Amino acid sequence: MRVLRPATTPVTN
Amino acid sequence: MRDEITYVPSRFNAITHTDDNGVVLMNSYNGAICYFSDKEKDEVLSTLKKTGTNELASEIKQELYTNGYLVSEQVDEKRRAQYLHQSMHRTDLIHLVILPTEACNFRCSYCYETFPRGKMNKETIHGLKRFVKEKAATLSNLNISWFGGEPLLALDVIEELSTSFLSVAKENSIQYSSDLVTNGYFLTKEVCQKLLSWEIRQLMVTIDGIGEIHDHRRYLAGGGRTFDKIIENLMKVKEVQGEFDLTIRVNFDESNLQETSKLIEFLRDRFADDKRFGIFFRPVGRWGGANDDELPVCSQITSNKKIWEFTNEAITNGLRIGSMIADSLMPTGSVCYAAKPTSLVVGSDGQLFKCTVSMNEEINKVGKIHEDGGVTLDYDKIALWTTSGEETDTVCQSCFYRPACQGNHCPLYRMRTGERPCPYEKRNIKRVLNLIWKNSLNE
Q1: Which residues of A touch B328 (CB under 8 A)?
Q2: Rounded distance, CA B73 to CA B67, Å?
Q3: Are the Cβ atoms of B33 and A4 closer than 8 angstroms?
Q4: Of B43, B69, B353, B411, which has the fewest Cβ atoms less than 10 A away?
Q5: Taking CB atoms and an 8 Å limit, are B63 and A1 in contact across chains?
Q6: Residue B148: is the preceding peptide bond cis (ω within 30°)?
Q7: Are B287 and B112 in contact (CB under 8 A)?
Q8: Which residue would you say has higher pLDDT here, B89 or B302?
Q9: Is the Cβ of B382 closer than 8 Å to some Cβ of chain A?
Q10: pLDDT tens track for B188-228
């Protein structure tokens, strides 16, 4: 697996 | 048995197969984009079946959960999206789109602007400085977009305001970011260095073709070529030290469609070796300009197809797509600034707008900024721009892309046509994810 975009914490913008 | 199932695929997932038999997954609620190889693919696909899985026993299942592609079946995802939408009203963020001048040295054939006002007046400059100073104590983020007109015609205004904003941001530990859209004619190496010193690090310049293809569409006011000067400037900008993202935007219609492949090769030979340069394709639209009736715009089907064909061709040639497309897949990333309660467009005479396209429409004239930093706003008009999306559109409420655009990709389009303004990225999400993966191989 390769992360192209990390998960963000929603609502932090 | 049904009671044991704990984890189900998120309703906000999208998945596509890559050219090397892997898969790319995205989740529009948390923005995660991940690639899984051919070897890992079968487990990914079987885990993401609607029936779900009752354990996270393998590394891949753990990754799917960590990245939000699997969620507990107890999670109410629609409520999550609703809360995300409400968070757009947080007051510690401000995004100002500032027009330091509404004049332009170009008269592009497809432009929708009318250039009624010139450089920003002193009262508005003072008002903006005071407005930001007074807001500063409660701000975590200040984002400034420079637009116009041609903003580089008013470099002194950009300098005066940027210097003030940066000072306030530093004093109050505010995260500051800034971007600028220019026709490129005045973007010399020296000007670029100044922009970077004012933390303007995201730039956009439009090139529509090689030589006269470009010059026939994007010419000087009063006539005159612009292509050679822009290319000369961009070649010098490559010599500038420092971090920036410069997106070359290509506007296409039926008149330059056939020439775009040559342009891609031309740009490859000059900019593929500099990772700070990216490319972005968009169809010319009829947005209310004087020449709208004569514009040879592409059909929606052709537009949707060509954007991604050209993007694929550019990546194959070693050019990059920058971060702009992936940025738009992030939660809230495709919500237009016109639809955001915390965003305002500031005209050069202090008039306030929501949208940068319909500057002459009464519905878009939402207020005024005064010399003392005070602001008068018409909240009834603002509400029309900020509440026309997922609140009322049940199709948007059920869409996998809802957290990214919230039904508000273009409130103007929805108001003018009554139709849903789905972003190009959403309409072609499988193609886009494959291109993001392919682009990552160039980085």
Answers
A1: none
A2: 16
A3: yes
A4: B43
A5: yes
A6: no
A7: yes
A8: B302
A9: no
A10: 998 999 999 999 998 999 999 999 899 989 999 999 989 99
